[in-house]
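Hi F.,

I've been meaning to write this up properly since the lab meeting, where we talked about keeping a consistent format for the predictions we share between groups. The idea is simple: the sequence comes first, exactly as it goes in, then the structure tokens exactly as they come out, then a line or two of notes. No screenshots and no reformatting. I'm using this chain as the first example so we have something concrete to point to.
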Amino acid sequence: MVRRALGLERIHLLGQSWGGMLAMEYLIRQPRGVASATIASSPASMIQWVAEANRLRQQLPPAINAVLLEHEGAGTTTSPEYQTTMLQFYNRHVCRVVPNPDYVARSFAKLAEHPEVYFTMNGPSEFHVTGTLKNWDIIGQLHKIAVPTLVTSGRHDEATPLIARTVHEGIRGSEWVLFENSSHMAHVEEREAYLRLLTRFIGEHEG
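Output, unedited:
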């Protein structure tokens, strides 16, 4: 309906993180007119996402993880201490450019200002998932995606290499590029290399 309203008969679709989840949901319905798709740091299963997030959390200093677990158990995840402490995870696995670029900081500020959708669908943080998406899983339907697909992720990504490989192996004929110096925002952390890759991939399927 959105494409029809905008007159977008033929598109190249890119979805990053939640956007990639939404893109995969769209693509398994096999819409017409999609020339290519790029799935950037996105899971095909929140169950797998949570399992991997818990594994990454175990790599945090024990004192840091203890503070997070204490607030999650007490239901006090909106406290300043929890919000500050969870940045230890974010700085490792969400964006390793610290301080974050202004455009990334603005996104987080906007999320903090209007958290209702994120809290409802995801939960209080990237690794403590309690929302309506917590059991979402389309791994078994990825084979229905029938457009040229590029999968991208970072070596240090919260969408871990296991998560990216699951998407890549589920989408027949897809290409997967792992950015060695990035976490969840390769388009920020290795911007020039990411743009070169995207330009090359879209160009190959522009017709």
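Notes:
The chain has eleven helices and four strands.
The two ends are 25 Å apart (CA to CA).

If this format works for you, I'll send the rest the same way.

G.
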